[in-house]
Amino acid sequence: MSDKYKRELSENEEITVSSERPVDIKEWNKDHVRQWLLEIKVDEEDADILYNEKINGSGLLHLKMCNLTELHLSMNAKALIMANIDILKQKTDMVTKSYSLKPYPFSRFNAAHRYRENSILDVTETGPKDYIQPCHEFKAFVNTTEENRMKKYTYEVIRFAAACMNSRTNGTIHFGVADKPHGQILGISIQNTDTFDVQQSHAIEKHFKPERAIKTAKRCIKPPRFVEVLKADMTSTGKCVIEVDIEPSSIVCQEFYFNTYKVDKNEHEMQEPTTAERKISSFFIREDSSSKNLITSDSSKEYEKYIKDMPQLSKLRKDAEEKHLAVVKNSVQGSKLCEIITGGTQSLDRSHFERYIVVANKSHPVQLENLRFLLHMNPVAVLDFDPESAENGLNKLFEERKNNIHLPVQYKITGAVEDIASKLKLTKNTSWVFCNGGINEENPSDADKWSIEKGSSVRDVVSFLCRKDVLPHKKFLTIFLLLSQVSDGKDPLLETFNMFLQELKGDNQILCVSDNETSYTYWKDLVEGRYGVDVSTRCIYELSFAEVNGTVLSLWSENRKSRRFLPCGGGSNVVLSKKTEDSLETLSILCVNQCDGGNEDKRKHEEIFYKGGKVSWWNFYFSEQPGSMPFIKRDKFSYIINTIIPDICSRKRVCEFFSIFHLPGCGGTTLAMHVLWTLKDKFRCAVLEDTTHDYTLIAEHVVQLLTYETKEKPTQLPVLLMIDDFQDISDVKKLQLQIEEEWLEQKKTTTSPRVIIVNCMRAESSEQTDDAVFIGNKLSENEQELFEEKLKEFKRTNTNTKTFYGFMILKNNFSPKYIQGIVRNTLKGFNFQDKNAQLFAVLVLLHVYCKNALLSVSTCEEFLGLQAKPYFEPSKVEDGFERFSNLLTRCTVNSKVSFEGVMVIHYSIAQHCLKELSIFSSKVEKAEITNLLLTTDSFYEYTLGKQKLMQDVHNMLVKRQLAEAKGSLFSPLIQDIMKETPGKEELILQDAAKRYRKDAVIFQLLARYYYIKKSDFTTAMKWARKAKDLSKDNSYICDTVSQVLVRELKHEVHKDKDDPIKPDSLEKYLTLAKSGGEACKETQQTAKKEAMTRSQRLKDYNTYNTAGHLGELQTAAIIIQILQKTPLFNCLSEVLSGKITFEDLPRMNDELEQYSQVLQKHKSYLLQLKGMMKNNCDFLDKFFVNLVPFFAEEDKQKELTKPKVSRYFQQYTDLFCKINWSELVNKELMNRMVKIEQARQCLERNKGDSYTGLLEYLYKEDSASTLEEIIQQYNFILNTREEARHLRDAINFIYANVILANINPESQYIVPYQDLRNFLIKIIDQPTPFSEILPLHYITVLLLRKEVDCTLLPFVSQMKLSYLQELRPVSNGKRAAVHFYLGKDKGYGGLISHRDINRCLGSEQNISTKWNDEKMWKRVRDCEKLYRVSGQICGGFISALDVKVDPMFRSQLPKESDRRVSFFIGFSMNGPVALDIDFES
User: Fold this and answer.
1) DSSP 642
2) Is residue 169 helix, strand or coil?
3) What does the angle CA 789 – CA 791 – CA 794 come to, to the nearest 5 degrees?
4) Which DSSP helix (H) or strand (E) runs through 476?
5) Residue 1264 neighbours by CB distance under 10 Å
6) Which element (helix H / strand E) includes 276?
7) Which helix (H) or strand (E) holds 1197?
8) Which residues of the chain register pLDDT less than 70?
9) Would you give the end-to-end CA distance of the chain in angstroms?
10) Secondary structure of residue 289 in the 3-state scheme
């Protein structure tokens, strides 16, 4: 035996394990041990001692020197054994740790099986075992020359096949597998696989006789199989292993035996046999690990005996086959799969699991078709370990769905968790994580290096996905798909399994799926061996993937599996692909066949809706089924369907919208969805998922939906887009504009609306208009009857309406008595010490003070201490709320991370609950509930919806609803706490500062609280500076510092009862004022920087913050009031104007002596007061007169600010402009220069000294007499010496005439048009200071608009440039105001103001807030006052009258040029603009 094996003694030389011994030493028997001892040169006598002691492999590994001594072995034997055991252990460890594989399944050709290069086949070369279990033979096949390759192949196949057939044993011969190291996968490169099959067939015909033997051999010898070989990193090597299976079944072979002819040839002498040689036959059988020829030159006795025993051998084969067939398992794994994957619900439509994660390794092409069930499961994430997945693996299969490709590093937490989840689009589309390279030029790693190179980043992925604030706790299932065999302890899939095991604290949320027992056994043993976990109960392995696929698909309703259709017009539909629908993640698309084939529970959906939950498409679907009462149609439903929408469809604008304003809980959202449901065949309908989405992305998706599969059609069905709960109507207009711009980008043209937005918005009240309806809390008689009918239907169908509160509240017209009855009955025995009572109170508070506020289900479970069940037992958070659950409902929140939330069913219920809690004997105060909300850490730690809750609570604390209009200085919640429990609001705000530790707005709120309510200016300043440190670039935060100083100044002056004010007090006030003024200037600078930043950002419509200017005016006004309470009051105007010096004051009045030092100290500041007040008033006038809101709407900023500015300006003029013109004009003997100066004071008093002040008269009533006075004043100034007049005087004079001519054309003071024109022409020939270019060129364009010999282009260009420099920096969120429109008449009559148009429109209509309304412009056309201009589109503007005219919105013009349009012209400071654009035929 020792001659047969060779082993080197040296540790430095390679030691090989005999191919006849198992790789694992523990499997050695005593013969194997003896064989090994002899190989290492142990004497036979010593070897026999161990043999007789029956030492096997396991015993050998535990031998110690003392054991060998006890056995009386020789010193030589002891030395050899101890030295070689260590070497053998090392070598065996290396071999067993290497990647071992099971062979390809016997007699199969489409199994998903691959080999890995240099891995070891977990079988040995053997002889017959039980006839069925195949014996194996390995051939390296690497050193064979190309010309001899086929000969060697056929020689080995025939020889092995004959041996197997004659031995009646199954067998497989492997080419590309080494004999030493035993079973090592090498692989071979093959160009043409077909040749092997052809040559094998020819070889069978050549080497077997007679014909029957040939036919039988062909049935037993299977065609060659080519098994792909992968590299260690799971990418392809381009090699394969060739395998041939031999299956001599008893029914095919019967008792036949197989001689072969001339194949026992030395494999190195590959010549064709001679004719004589061909007659010599061989008879091969399998003996041990080789094929033996029984026909030898010495004797044929053995052969003859074998032939004689062939019937017995055939019978043994037959018995073995029958025994094998009898072992058929009665599998229950189909039902087990259904139970685990649904969490016990047996339906994936209603699965306990809300999300699924898939972890998969290398797939095989034959598997992919049977993995399609994954497409319907829409996993939240796939962790893919196949680096070639995108080319030919699982990722390729998912091309049918939208998935976002990620690398593990993108999951690293570098900021807010919800922001990262949003960026990854988790819960929107499948996140496909390539965990072993394959994208972005990242190289894959082999198993040995993967843990070091990629393990850490994949752990980040697993940790992120298992966070409670990312996926619902214990409501997701992780499915491990073992698509390739895992038999290496370092396999990345195994390590990832351990990561999930650790993060999920067990395997209850894990399912492992394999399609064969071999892979399962490897997996189970590895997991148990490495981690001590038995995963057998969490594994499916007896089902093929075809059976898994069918089983899982059967768990979906037909509705979830069927195709969805979009309408195309004319009754035709188009299939909406899953990938397209996935990619439009901002939209929830309503299809033509929505709900068809569903198996939803009608009663459950009715219960949710009529209780007060949000309506679903199922409610409309069930109402259309036979035997059901139609869905209640509100009165406004018919008006919308039959009037509003047809009217909108007749308009020209690309995107239009109408509004459904409603009180909360009155059915506004239900009405909007009812409209969409009814029109789903005529429009492409969708609901916006989340109002916080980027408008650019929403617009892209809307246009994609509009144009989907309509490329060849000239027109498309319009999109009907429902949006719910936008904050402001201006937000709707922003989205409208964005959709139009996206349409324009597509180079599309249209003459009718392509998108109609259904804007559903809460409002206290609203009048019904052409584009808006209001849903209040009173049902009409018709609606009341429909509700009564519905109630009767409930009774007929024995529906339990006990908790249909939403329905009954509406039916009872929001009866306070009914609502109070529900609330009192539910809250009876309310104890705020109970956890569920506390949580209910928090939900009530959230609902009352913040629209759509709620808590996630997982947050509620955490607070109530409910343990979410991983499966088989649905988690009911409602059970934790007990009786309060009747007033709660669930809803899905589509925000950065989608999740399920809990909220109070109805706003009125919440209001009454809060009221009821406050009048209990054990009164529950709002402050107490708010304190609980702010101080409970579990609400904010690692729970779903954390970011939304933080924002909702923030809004409750900060947001003032129409605060200024109501005189409200704080949010409704804070104000209510102040009323209910005065003083506790301070504690609440301090709690808020602790919860929002780095929130500048909360710190600002505290500063405001302390200076407004407490007059604690020191504390206020502390918070104001903290806020400013956190948000230095925010002008509103910056302004808080100045507000503290101004408020302190105002407070100090108010409590100072001294008259006159003492010098010390004056010193303090002036110091405060100076600091306040500097802070206001800083606010102005910050606001300007902020505005510039905003102007560079696309779609930022936030306006310039004027607070710094207003604050500076306020400070100056207070100082003037203070100075008027000193001895200065008689000469204050002269002192502040610099006409009287501070040095002269003591000489003028002895009382001023004591003030002299203070006044001298603040001289610089005081002398700037007048100019500062004038500059700020002028700036704000220019800002509000020349700039209007970007969208046609009321200027709320102007409404709030302008009255204050007017008040401060009045204070300014009362001090500095006391002259009355009627008195001045009669003073003929007065010095002319003094009179001019006083005339200028008159102009200043009437704002006639600036063009913006004059333009403002266009928007005032009864302003003609003032303008006449201004014209007289300018006539006086302009008729003086040249050095006493300025260019501005002339420009303002022209403005005054043009404006007066518009207001009162009959006035005797108006200069004739032609004279004014000639006067203007003289002016424009003079040099013009930069400061006068804008007003001069604007009035030039107005007056010379129809001059044939005057080109306006230079004036328009210079005017636009001046606008850019003067007003553009502060114009963000604004546009240049149109002061005049081009009329049909000549002269003054050709300049039409907005008041002229409004006079035509009547009914208190205002064109300045309706210039985007088509109906309004139709009425303007009917007035026939405006001149309609014709022009040609040219690169985004219109060329007309030799001038480039901008459209009011770029989206109103198509991209292509040369089309002719007609339009009205409006004149703004930013050049002429085109309005009411219409395409010419």
Assistant:
1) I
2) coil
3) 115
4) strand 476-481
5) 19
6) helix 275-278
7) helix 1196-1216
8) 1-24, 26-27, 88-99, 264-279, 297-298, 326-331, 712-715, 766-767, 867-875, 921, 961-967, 1098, 1222, 1226-1227, 1229, 1282-1284, 1348-1349, 1403-1404, 1455-1456
9) 105
10) coil
